[in-house]
Specification:
2 helices; Glyas_Fos-R_dOase_dom; lactoylglutathione lyase activity; 147 residues; Glyas_Bleomycin-R_OHBP_Dase; 4-stranded mixed β-sheet; 2,3-Dihydroxybiphenyl 1,2-Dioxygenase, domain 1; 8 strands; 18% helix; VOC family protein; 2 domains; alpha/beta; VOC_core; globular
């Protein structure tokens, strides 16, 4: 038996705000949605494939100290694509950690951005190489563990 991640479902506080964020930063398209007051959701896709579902059924901010999701990571082809996402993240004023693109660890060539969505859910966009010429923000542990 073999498993592959299908799609990720996230609880959000404001569907419209989150939907706009994920469309702007990731370029996802809306594949389906419900605007019913008690059952608001959006299905977001890339190239016709469902990637993310947003469910407006929570309040407050993401609680990193509680069991559950640590962060959600997306790989892109190269550092240029990471830089494109970085420009959008800065433009919309999202919380960005480590002041931009960083390698995953000392001597690693992979790296990317660590940031938050409108509800504080921690996200990463990374490329498999091209970031190794920058200093890592931490040593001896994964960069993604320290945001």
């Amino acid at each position: 038996m073999s498993f592959q991640t299908g799609h990720i479902g996230l609880n959000v506080t404001d569907l419209d705000k989150s939907k706009e964020f994920y469309q702007r930063v990731f370029g996802f398209t809306v594949a389906g949605e419900s605007q019913q007051d008690e059952r608001r959701y959006a299905f977001l896709a890339q190239d016709g494939t469902l990637v993310l579902t947003l469910w407006q059924q929570s309040a407050g901010r993401f609680a990193a100290a509680l069991p559950g999701l640590h962060h959600l990571s997306f790989q892109v082809a190269d550092l240029a694509a990471v830089r494109e996402a970085e420009a959008v993240i800065k433009e919309i004023g999202a919380t960005l950690h480590h002041d931009g693109v960083v390698p995953h660890g000392e001597g690693a060539s992979s790296g990317g951005l660590f940031f938050e969505d409108p509800d504080g859910i921690r996200l990463e966009i990374y490329a498999p190489d091209g970031a190794g010429d920058r200093p890592a923000p931490t040593s001896g542990a994964p960069t993604c563990g320290f945001f």
